Structure formats: structure tokens, C-alpha cells
Amino acid sequence: MGRAKKYLTPEQKADANRAKSRRHYEKKKDKINNKRRREYHKAKAHTDCAPGILVPPERHGSALQPQDPLHLWMEQNDRIKNRLLKITGKEPAIFVDEISLRYLSDGNKDTLHTHATQLGKLQKAIYRCQNEVLTLAGMGPEYHAVDKTVILIRTIVGWVEEVLCYAMVELSEVRRLREERGFMYQIG
To answer: Of all residues in the chain, what percent carry a pLDDT higher than 90?
Structure first.
């Protein structure tokens, strides 16, 4: 004895499948649209024809060609480094000095907190990248390349958090340490 049929006709089954697809799309709409946008921009960036003519990415079968996971994680490392460079500028110590000066001028800890949070997100992303590279390639040159980024981000986060900790104590403490060159970013 089998189970009772849920749908008696092919039309009912097709309606149920459409409803299921609609529920899935509504649930994952943002993720699906972001993926479509990325593919659109990627295809638009690589087109060799006149502007306005879009050439879709080459497809073999129904999916894009798979890439090497290690290569993808190394690209992620490069993207994280670029984001860090965009946030800090060229020299991390100058960046931390500028935000501590900004705090001293306006007395608002939000700037420090915002940068600490922003850098914390980068730190979380690079740790995940480091773990994946370690899993895929072991302690090779790829891991050491990612490890340099990890150390850089960890150092900058430590510097910003140090200034933030002293800012929580008192503004004059930050001023005193900065003038005495007592912060870690000024020493190293």
C-alpha cells in the first residue's frame, strides 16, 4: 500500500510546484537578485562590443564553469586587502592617528567605534578566508600570503581598539598618550 496521492491531476501538481517556486523566490529574493546583478556587471565589464550591447557570460550546459576553490579564496583575500586599503588609505598608522585626532577634536567616540566595527567585519572575513585556504592548501605559500593580511588587519584593529579603550576612560587620557607617543601605533 502506497500513500494517498496528494495531487490528483497534473495541473494540480504543476500549480503546487509553481507555488513552491514562488515561496522559495520570495524567501531568497535578495540573494537571487544580488547574484543576478553580479553576473550582469561581470558580463558588462568583460564585453568587447559597443556600449549598450550586453553579451551574457559563456555557459556550458546550464551552469557557469566551476573554478578552483583555492583560487576563489585567494581572490577573496585580495578583495579584503583592497577594502582595507580603501578604509585606511596607504599607511595604517596615519589612519589611526587621524581618527584619534578626529576624536580629540570633537570628543565623539562614535568615529572610533564605527571604524572598530568596520575593521572587525574585515577581520572576521579574513579569518574565514585563512581557515579555508589552510583547509584547501595547507601551510603553503597561499596560506602565508593570507596570513600577512591577517596580521595587518589584526594589528590595525588592535591599534583602533587601544585608542577606543582609552577614549572610554577619558578624553584627556587619549590626548596625553598621543602627545607622549605612548600608543602602539606610534611606537611601532
So the answer is: 16
